[in-house]
């Protein structure tokens, strides 16, 4: 299946995930040097050269690659006979609760350069086993297969974290992960909202910075580095998720929902909700 077709399907209404085993016997051909619209985890069984901005890297044997959608790259294989596995997905596919662990895993997908891990025998056996199950589950008729696939992808990323060199996965990033994790934990502790009479009090990056006793600029920089998203985006996304839950599952008035989310006037909440979802709060209740 060509990349154009994959991109069309993954941006459509189907769950934003695809996986495949590939095997070629044709002459080497270079993949287009471009950005993709999805995250990619790739098990490469053959040698070749991976090129990305200002650098090329030789891949000499079985390797596990983690590729960010904003990173342009091209791969030139050396061999006529080649095979491997890949899985591609959008961020929305993995999104669940705002857990620090989830965003730590995303440190594998770096915008400035790919994560390339050379696999030894044991690591190759584990990664191949996981990919075999990913592909078979993807093509199965199992009702909850996408939930199962999320678990397999999590396991793949954990394997990647375990194989990362110490200087990448060690002390240098511990402080940043700790601050980002504290921010996400503090954000999540405000939810779910139990009563409209107790509005949330932390609504802006500076509010969280004050609680964490750090400068707001440092908080913003760390959260962006670790998670790939701004502090404001995290706050807005969590607020929208809570808004939708309250609109669907509570009988609170829209004015009450606006108040408990910290909006002084309902029309401010309406504007915020429409900006981020393209719909009005009232439309979700019809």
From TrEMBL:
InterPro entries cross-referenced by the UniProt entry: Homeodomain-like_sf, HTH_AraC
Domain called HTH araC/xylS-type: residue spans: 206-286
Pfam family, one: HTH_18
One GO MF term attached to the UniProt entry: DNA-binding transcription factor activity
Keyword terms of this UniProt record: DNA-binding, Transcription, Transcription regulation
Domain of life of the native organism: Bacteria
The keyword Transcription appears for this protein: yes
Gene3D superfamilies recorded: Homeodomain-like
Protein name: AraC-like DNA-binding protein
Organism listed in the record: Pedobacter zeae
Lineage of the organism: Bacteria, Pseudomonadati, Bacteroidota, Sphingobacteriia, Sphingobacteriales
